[in-house]
Amino acid sequence: MAIEAKHSRFLEAFEAKREAIENCLNSYGIGFMLVLDTTVSPTVMQALPSLHLLRAGYLEPLRATAEREISALLNSATCWSVEELALRLTSGRVGVLAGLLAGLLSADFSKSLFSPTS
Prior knowledge:
By secondary structure, the chain is mainly α. The protein has helices at 10-27, 42-53, 60-76, 82-88, 92-102, and strands spanning 2-6, 32-36. The chain has 2 domains: 1-39; 40-118, no CATH class. The protein has a two-stranded parallel ribbon with strand order 1-2. 11% of the residues are buried.
């Protein structure tokens, strides 16, 4: 599944290309979804590009390390502030994003992910 997060102003220009893009991706067995900023919170829209980039194959070792560290930390406490957790991870805030991507962590996206109160 290919998921693109875009601002709503992108939609009009994209519509002319949508069918060709979807058909091309479908021919490779890949589904396609467009997520607009009008359907998710601004905080989620800020996090999506970073989460998307973090999926890159060359970052697998970083993700694996973060996942191991997070799993160990979750054994000692199940609730962490984002900043406190980031301070304990080798990769810091990127490690927190890796934990979200892996489904090990959840976050309240009604406020900024890396705010002091997160």
